[in-house]
Structure formats: structure tokens, C-alpha cells
Amino acid sequence: MIKIAIIGLGYWGKKLLKEFNEICDVCYCCTKGNKENIKWLKNHYPKIKYISTFDDLIKQNNLQAVVIATPINTHYLLVKKSLEAGKHVFVEKTMTQNLIQAKTILDIAKKKKKMLFVGHIFLYHPILRQIKKIIQKDPITYIHCTWTKLGTFNENLVLDFVSHFLSILNELLGMPNEIIILESKGFTTKCDLIILEVKYQDNIKGIIEINRLSNYKKRTISISTRKNLFLWDDDTLLKFNRKKLSFEQILESKNTALALECIEFINLIKAKSKDYSNIAKGLKVLSIIEKLM
User: Which domain holds residue 222?
Assistant: First the structure.
């Protein structure tokens, strides 16, 4: 069984730990001096060894892979050191702060013949896969993505939230011809609300709206096709009924995208040849983001 370590035990790090603990051997955890997280680890996973420093962690000879769920500005150095130490790496999105850093770590991964994988979770969502099947026969004409929630304020809004929707749009429509910032407002940071227009060939257009100053949490994607209207609402897919003038559920995701994503990473490690198509998608997202920053 593949032996891995989780680096970062915040909200998302705990979720990753739970998923990976079911499919491989999580041997170690490392988190930056947060006593509550260390206590949580000892209470919930007493068999997992806590190592206080990252440099000590990657020296463990039996460790094969690391899962990095730390702030985005730390990703590059942590990934680089992990790959150089001969470990496979799963890093949460966005993998680095810029394209040059991303290409550098990809080069290291290929040189070391190690797997490098970025956690653009929605690419593994069963509903996205269903939408891709639908639009093969009924192409998209317009797509509107909205996400409202409170926080997280310690990350760049574009790198943290917009990147999710860009990965989805790239998967459905390919790379855009143009992306325009229609509105950008800040309250707690320089940018807490943003509206983007994304243009594609054949006059296809997408809108991305992110608001992290909302008092409720909601993520939806409205998809207009030539014949129909669909709504991706969290873990359900709905289709508009023109006669009843209402939406009807056509799919509910039973498997979580996070579980499927973690399984994919382990399978890629086990594969005879290294497949970096996941990273290629991450690079495309970063290339768009660089035009916005």
C-alpha cells in the first residue's frame, strides 16, 4: 500500500486526510504549529505520526508521496522540495502562483519520473462528466457560473475561486478567445467580488461571478444549450421543463468528486507510464489567470 503524508491540516487538509486514509497508508502529517489541529490529529488518527517540520518529513525513507493542502503562496517551494526528495506530489489548486513556477515543478517531476497532480476537484465531478456527454449532441451556447459564500479572505480571489470555474469552462469549451473583468470590488481585501466575461468562438459567452462577502453559501452553473437549459446546483443536475416551467432533477452525484480525485492520483502513481494531462489542464488555468492578475 502506498505510504503518503498530508501537509496542512486546515479545513481541506482534514478532508483530504479522510479520503486518502481509506485508500492508502497515511503515515505522517505536518501542520504549521497549530495546536488545535495537532490535538485533532491525535484524537481522530492516533496511529498517524505527527512531524513538526516539513524538512524532517520529506527525509522519511518509507514515504512515497505527499499531499499538500497549504496556502497557495507556499505551494511552489513545498512541491519543488518534495519532488527533489523523490516523492510523488498531490497539490491543491492552484498549484503555484504563476506559470513559470508551474512549468519548473513539472520539469522536475518529469526528470525525477515522479507523479505531479493538481487538485482541480470539479474535473472529477460526476455531473461534469454527464454534462460533457450531453453537449456532444446539444452544444453549449451560454454558461453562467456563480459562487457566493463568506471567506476565505487569506487567499487571492482569482487563484482560489475563479480557478475552479476556469477549469470547468476549459473542460467544456476549451481555451477562451478573450476574458474581461466587468467588475471588481474589495471590502476586506483588494478584491472580494468579481464578475468576468469569457468569450469563445461562434459567439459563445460565459459569465463568472464570485462573491465571498455573502451571508449564505451557494454554487451554481446555468448552462444554455441549443435545445435545453440545465442547472448544476452543488451535487445535483437539473433540466428545465418548458411545459411545467420548472426544473426537474436528472442526476444526483452519489460519489464525491474528492474521493474520485484521490483515487485517480493513487492510480496514476501505480501506472507504468506517467500521465501529466492533469497538470496540462492546470497550466491552462494558470495561463488564463496570468492575464487577469
Answer: 126-252
